[in-house]
Automatic annotation (TrEMBL):
Pfam families: 7tm_1. It comes from Adineta steineri. This is G-protein coupled receptors family 1 profile domain-containing protein. One of its GO terms (cellular component) is membrane. Residues 1-225 form the G-protein coupled receptors family 1 profile domain. The chain crosses the membrane at residues 21-40, 60-81, 101-126, 146-172, 201-222.
């Protein structure tokens, strides 16, 4: 399905839009996010082996999962902001929707995420004496707690908030455009392409908010209210995580089906 999305977004008619580049970039890390956990579960059930159950993978698995999920979310935010700017009536805002701007923002965003999440390679370590089944445990310090809280705020508060705000503003701008004078024929093709991209993005944003919100609420509650970190809420968090993973697959699928 990821290959299908890349193929759809790589069509010549869409290459002139900066939003296309953000959406293609968002697809790339998705396999890491949606494959690691199922594969790990299969290995645990059939072999009793945890992917994160070694000195090296304990650090890398948590780092790659966290990086891929935040990368996907950040590119979706960039695409949403891009659609808002494109639909704006202000010319100086539309200047930021050029392809060359997207080519600059994408690598800068990638570097910033790598830097921000690099502590994940440090705060987790392999402890063969741990009671955890996978022996991968987290250091417990005040600084680490503050850092993890910041990640919860960024991923589960700021990202959904930005998606909701700019997604709503984009819909508002598009509806206003329908009441204006229709463009001349030579721009009809471009307008149709922009409308398709906007529709695809709105579907993905709505899907993201639907599937990621339950998991976000649970993580926020457990993070800010440690007394709720019980086996009961751990089970709910696992179910919310499974719902979130299913949402990532569905989000990508609906993106290609919207064409």
């Amino acid at each position: 399905m990821n290959i299908l999305n890349v193929w759809v977004l790589s069509r010549p008619a869409l290459r002139s839009s900066s939003c296309t580049y953000y959406l293609i970039a968002s697809v790339m890390p998705v396999p890491i996010f949606i494959i690691v956990t199922p594969v790990n579960q299969i290995l645990v059930n059939n072999r009793g082996f945890y992917i994160s159950g070694t000195t090296v993978t304990c650090k890398l698995v948590m780092f790659f999962i966290s990086t891929s999920s935040l990368w996907y979310a950040s590119m979706l935010v960039c695409a949403t902001i891009d659609r808002f700017l494109t639909s704006s009536t202000l010319v100086h805002l539309r200047h930021f929707t050029q392809v060359r701007v997207a080519r600059i923002i994408i690598p800068i965003n990638w570097i910033l995420i790598l830097i921000y999440l690099s502590p994940f390679t440090i705060i987790y370590y392999y402890d063969p004496m741990s009671s955890n089944a996978n022996k991968c445990v987290q250091y417990s310090t005040t600084l680490i707690s503050i850092y993890l809280i910041s990640r919860v705020i960024v991923y589960y508060v700021m990202v959904p908030l930005l998606l909701a705000i700019f997604g709503t503003l984009t819909i508002y701008n598009i509806r206003n455009q329908r009441h204006r004078i229709a463009p001349v024929n030579q721009f009809n093709g471009q307008r149709r392409t922009e409308s398709q991209l906007a529709r695809m993005l709105i579907i993905q944003v709505a899907s993201y908010l639907l599937f990621f919100t339950p998991s976000g609420i649970i993580y926020i509650l457990v993070t800010f209210f440690p007394s709720l970190n019980t086996s009961y809420y751990a089970t709910i968090r696992s179910l919310a995580g499974a719902w979130q993973q299913g949402g990532t697959k569905e989000n990508i699928s609906m993106g290609s089906n919207s064409w």
